[in-house]
């Protein structure tokens, strides 16, 4: 079995992560003229259980431009749905162990995106699916977002922060929950970003209403990384306090882990979830909020943004927005991930 891009959030050291960020930025400067053959002849199978614009298009464009071959398999309709043993349905599903070994025999990597409904919204359920692919595959397995982590998004985020702020040690980042009319968003983005930011030496303020706390295991890991790098981590339940004097404001919505089911087949407590959201409709980034941040602060969001709810148009489309640079960096971050896994020498 081989290594993959599953959860570098927890397993990659701060020093190794900073080195990867630097290599990704250098790789971006060489793209596309000097990277066009680095994955020549390599094939990656892409399985999307959820909708995707940036992840799908950036991965596949990047692989094609580097000489590789992306093949998309629809796990809901186009193939027998890969399933864990307890979720098998005769002639409708196929055990993950079998799918992973077959695809490993054909190609060079497997990339998967899965969270929410396909895993019954049980926190960690989708990640178990990813780990099963990792256990049985003999090629790298890439996490394109699961319910716990979104490492490719975090890498693009840190690249953007580096480009905008230079060295990140001591820079202040606010990671904040924001209101949305939909609760159907996992905690993967804030959790990966939090870990990446403290590994990068940033002073992080995590702002959220009490019902929207992140995974305690992730919080413990973030504090350990922060102690190692000299970063700081502060939690507040006051939105404007979180934004105050920040050099960068990353505000987006995520679900409440407290109201997700404990087991497959149990329902989400939607009434409690919606009540938690509706009680905090004022957690929205507008110009008055951005004025609480440092004078040259930037606004970030992983997209898609719920405009008018998470953020106003004049912020996301305005001069303080780093959102579309951030989206563009998804291509370059994932090129670096694919190269790191399939041809690491080309990053040197």
TrEMBL record:
InterPro entries: Asp/Orn_carbamoyltranf_P-bd, Asp/Orn_carbamoylTrfase, Asp/Orn_carbamoylTrfase_sf, Asp_carbamoyltransf_Asp/Orn-bd. It comes from the Bacteria. Residues 12-163 form the Aspartate/ornithine carbamoyltransferase carbamoyl-P binding domain. It is an enzyme of class 2 (transferase). One of its GO terms (molecular function) is ornithine carbamoyltransferase activity. Residues 189-340 form the Aspartate/ornithine carbamoyltransferase Asp/Orn-binding domain. It holds the Pfam family OTCace. Its EC number is 2.1.3.3. Keywords: Transferase. Gene3D superfamilies: Aspartate/ornithine carbamoyltransferase. SUPFAM superfamilies: Aspartate/ornithine carbamoyltransferase. One of its GO terms (biological process) is citrulline biosynthetic process. Reversibly catalyzes the transfer of the carbamoyl group from carbamoyl phosphate (CP) to the N(epsilon) atom of ornithine (ORN) to produce L-citrulline. PANTHER family: ORNITHINE CARBAMOYLTRANSFERASE, MITOCHONDRIAL, ORNITHINE TRANSCARBAMYLASE, MITOCHONDRIAL. Belongs to the aspartate/ornithine carbamoyltransferase superfamily. This is Ornithine carbamoyltransferase. The lineage of its organism: Bacteria, Pseudomonadati, Pseudomonadota, Betaproteobacteria, Burkholderiales. The gene is argF_1.
